[in-house]
Structure formats: structure tokens, C-alpha cells
Design brief:
The protein is mainly alpha-helical. The protein has one domain. About 70% of the residues lie in helices and about 0% in strands. It contains 6 helices and no strands. The protein is globular, with a radius of gyration of 15 Å.
Amino acid sequence: MLPSKPLPDDPVQRQLTELRNGLLKLHKSLLDSESAVYDRDVKRITSRGQLLDLVLNDPWFAWLHELSELVVLIDEAMDAEESPTAADATRFIKQARGLLSPPNSTGTFRKHYLEALQRDPDVVIAHSEAIKMLAALGY
């Protein structure tokens, strides 16, 4: 998992950092939950390398890519030569809100996310923290 970034002074960078860090915490919880189910129902995961390969290549974990890709987009915006704007931050926050609000999300992510919320209290807690983080960011 990527490390949390310290909070910068710039308000837009601060918003994006808080968003990124919050999404990473949720992603970690979802990954832990999915790997436990995979380990139980499909095949024992014996190493971090095997888990990484599964996350990158196995269809079982493919639904998590949408969340991973959002974090990558935020990182790229924060590291770009041109600083992200308030509009960029708003767009990313709205995208995260849409992804994490099951009635608003669609497709494979929604299906698996709802399943994870139903089966794992740690995911429920991580989801709650992510929603609170989004609310604190004004969305």
C-alpha cells in the first residue's frame, strides 16, 4: 500500500491529500477483506508477492481497480507540473462520493462493494470513515 502523504499548506493540495489518504485506508480494508475471502473460498494466499500478482491480474480483485485508479489519478494531479485547481479537487471528491455511495454507483464495483459492506464490519467502519472524510471536505 502507498504510504499516507503529509498534509501540505496549499488548500487544494490539502484537500487532495486528505482525499487520497482516506481512499487508501478504505482500499486497504477492502483488499484485506477480499483477500480473506479469496484465501478461504478459492486458494490460500501464501505471500505478499502472490497477493500482488492476484490483485493485478486475477479477475477476483479486478473490481478494486476502479478505486485504485482514482487514487492514482489524484496522485498524478498532485505531482503534475501545473498545480491542481479547486475545480480539480471538486471533481475528484465528487468522483469518490459517487463511487462510495452505493445507490449512486453502478456496475461491478457497486455489486462487490455492497457485498463487502454486508460481510465485513471492518469495511463498514472504513466506509463510514471515508464518508465522514468526504463530508469534512464539503461533499
